Structures are given as structure tokens and as C-alpha cells.
Amino acid sequence: MAYIVPSSPETLADRELYTRSRLVEVACLDCLVRVKVRKNSDHHTSIQWNQEAGDCATFAELSRREGGRPVHQACPRLLASIEAAVREGVVPIGAGVDPIETSDG
Amino acid sequence: MTETRTLDTGSVPERFARGWHCLGLERDFTDGKPHAVQAFGGKLVVWADSQGELHVLDGYCRHMGGDLTQGTVKGDEVACPFHDWRWGGDGKCKAIPYARRVPLRARTHRYESVVRNGQLLIWHDPEGSEADLEALPPVLEGVGTDKYTEWTWNVIPVENAHCREIIDNVVDMAHFFYIHFAFPTNFRNVFEGDKATQFMESTGRPDMKAQGYGDEDLILKSEATYYGPSYMINWLDTDYKGFLTKVILINCHVPTGPNSFNLQYGLVVEKPEGVDEETADYIGRRYAEMFGEGFMQDVNIWLNKAPVQNPLLCEEDGPVYQLRRWYEQFYVDKADIEPEMVERFEFEVDTTKANENWRAEVAENLARKEAEDREAEKAKA
Ligand code: FES
Ligand SMILES: [Fe+2]
């Protein structure tokens, strides 16, 4: 028991909900990267990379430049690819991850 | 009908984070005296040897527990006030003036330290690993030269909160409006490896102008990165009607106990062209005061809030759970770091709804204020 341990099992369910639910895979149209995406609205984007995602060509390019800061904001090509996926209806724009109210609930 | 939601307050972690922790400015430790720093549930001693190099040891003498921070520096060593045992920067006892020889086992806990950008950083790892120099914050080009003002430095003790509270700020878009009276218009996060970053664009709040928070003409671009668990560099570029200021703010902390920490902040200002030394320093001090007020606004919240393991989020909130997943890497053994804790994650907060509502709130406040002023004017007449 090293880190802050939650005292209820529901907390773990919440963590699962907020970090893992409703993710859709999107491939970059310019390089070989594949990421998991969620969009709650037009202006919201959540992008989860993982070990199998591959390396972003644009980031590699940015890292080679001198004097830059070590952290890169989103890759514009990947964002364009996500926008395309949204237009094609592959990535749904939906109301967050909260459970939807059911009529009998 | 949905159930009542309860707060899961969780448990306080049993260990302190692995990583570099900043203890303060180098210049504050070089006066030839031993200094006490509260950290990691105990006390450390910091001193400079005859070459000016800083050393950090556990604060208590391994002989009979004397407080080394109340001792003296003799040559390169710190001498205990109780029986004068001399401790070297390598953690070994070098001499016992009244003894024939030094016991072989006279070795104390030493912290590896590095001075970077004029600040003293030490490596802490409950597993006792060697310091990871790769994990150090970057060298700040030009800091320490004529180009920038000198560091300001302040410490705020936070007695009753875990330092994760300040980490949470990285993703907390909305609190900037309510607590810090700023108006965020653009807000993004990137977590990757041992770094967590917040990109924010904001303006002042016109309804708080009289309180000194600027107005919509004050445009702020901020990029703030945590390098490891405790040390953040915040690059702040402000533009007030074409007058540009570049500030580098350090926001760092040292845990002092399981549920307390010392918050520290310091900044330098890039000296604007055509501005003399004195004015530049004045600008630096003014910014330091302003950020000091800002941190106190946070502290007042932390001291009174409940710890929450299961925050309930709305769609306009930042990625709290992902940030905490990132932060957890510093509290588990290195071998137990899960890929998810370090994999790249990006998030853009949708500020459109918030901005719409806040603009209305600001307008309402301004109108009310104007009406009040008119009333007061009338009463005077
Ligand atoms: S306790 Fe330090 S010298 Fe005896
Ligand atoms: Fe804050």
C-alpha cells in the first residue's frame, strides 16, 4: 500500500469510466500512428496514446529542432485525421462518459 | 432516482515521491553555516564546503542524534553541536576530535544534489536508487545572466493537505476563474513519461480590474510543465496593450510529512529592453507578490477542503483521473510503473460553454457595480 488507496470499490469503477470508456481508435492519415480518441463536443478532444501507437513523425521532427521545449502540444496532422474521422462518423461526438439516465431509473 | 453520492477520502500515501525535489536557492545556503530543511517527514542539513559546493545529509547525527543543523561548518565538514563529530558531504564521518579512530560504520544518509538554474535539487527515492540525471529539469538558457532579473523566492508552509492538491491544479481549468480571477479561453494538457504539462491562454477579468487582476486587454499565454513529481517550470508571456513581459515561474514543493508540504515559488523576468535594472527588479517583485496572492488563494481552499479520491466531473472539467494516474508513477516502485502511467495522453478542454456563461456573469457584475456606484454618487449629492 504505497499510494493513496481508495476506500470504496465504486472509486475504481469511476476511474475506469473516466479513463477508459468510449475510446475509439483513429489512425493518423500521414504516419503510422494509431491512438484512442474520445470527443465530448466539437471543441473537446481526449487522445490516449499507448505503446503500440507508434511514433509521431511530426514530434520526431520537432524534437530535432534546437531550443524548443521538451513537450509538444497536439500534432496538427493527427488532429486533422481525427477531424476527418469525426466527419466520417467514425468518432461520435457524445455527451461525456456519465451514465445516461434511463426512463425507468 | 439516483443514489446520493459520497466522497471517498482514501488514505494518505505511506511514502514520499521518487524524484528531484528543490530545496531552495543556492545563494541562500552559501553563508558558511549549516541550514535546516524540513523534508520527507524529517529534517535535512544543507551546507557549503570550502569550495562552495553544497551538500545535503540527514539532519541528525548518527552518534547520539545531535541536531547537525545547529552545528557549525568546520572546513569541508559539518560538525555536530553535541560531541563535534565531523560529517563529510559523502555521508561519512571524517573525524572525531576526541577519538583514536572513526568507527567503520559511521555513515549517514546523504542526498545526491545538483545545482541547476541557481537552485538546489536533491534526489529522493525510497528504494534508494542512484539519482536519475536524465530526470532533472532543463537548464534555463540565459537565467543567471544579465538577460534576466535575479530569482525571487518564497516559501508557504501548508500544514494540513497532501501535495497532490497542488498537482491537481494542472488540469483544473475552472478554478482559474473562481479562485484566481482569470478568464481561461484555451486549455490543454499533455502527460508523457515523467512530465505533465498545462497549456493555457487567458485574459484578466474586467469585473476584477479594481482588485488588480487586469482586464480583457491583459492576454496571458502560459505553458507549465512538471518535471517529475514536484518541480514545475511555468513560462508566462503576458501582453498588455503591446507591452510584452516574459516571466519564468518555478512552482515546486517538498513534502514535509504524510499530510503536509512546503510550497515554494520563485521567478525571474526577462529584462525588457530600455528598462533599467531597478525597474526590472521592481517588475519582478510585483509579479512575485501577485503569484504569492494566487498561491494563497489555492492554499485557503486546500486547508479547508476534503481530500477526494472520487471526484465527480462534468464535461468541461480537465482530466483529473488521468493526471492522478500519471502522478502515481512516483509513488510505486520503479518496477511497478504501469505503461498507462507514462503513456502520452492529450486533452483539450472545451471552454466555449464556460466562456459564454462567464462572459454573462462578468457583464452582470459590471452592471451591478455601475448601479451601486451611481447610487453612491446620488447619496453624496
Ligand atoms: S551526537 Fe553528534 S557528535 Fe555526538
Ligand atoms: Fe490554483
Automatic annotation (TrEMBL), chain A:
It comes from the Bacteria. This is Ferredoxin. It comes from Aeromicrobium terrae.
From TrEMBL, chain B:
One of its GO terms (molecular function) is monooxygenase activity. Keywords: 2Fe-2S, Dioxygenase, Iron, Iron-sulfur, Lipid degradation, Lipid metabolism, Metal-binding, Oxidoreductase, Steroid metabolism. Gene3D superfamilies: Naphthalene 1,2-dioxygenase Alpha Subunit, Chain A, domain 1, Rieske [2Fe-2S] iron-sulphur domain. Its cofactor is Fe cation. InterPro entries: Cholesterol_7-desaturase (IPR050584), KshA-like_C (IPR045605), Rieske_2Fe-2S (IPR017941), Rieske_2Fe-2S_sf (IPR036922). Residues 20-122 form the Rieske domain. It comes from the Bacteria. GO terms for biological process: cholesterol metabolic process; lipid catabolic process. Homotrimer. The two-component system 3-ketosteroid-9-alpha-monooxygenase is composed of an oxygenase component KshA and a reductase component KshB. PANTHER family: 3-KETOSTEROID-9-ALPHA-MONOOXYGENASE, OXYGENASE COMPONENT, IRON-SULFUR DOMAIN CONTAINING PROTEIN. This is Rieske-type oxygenase.
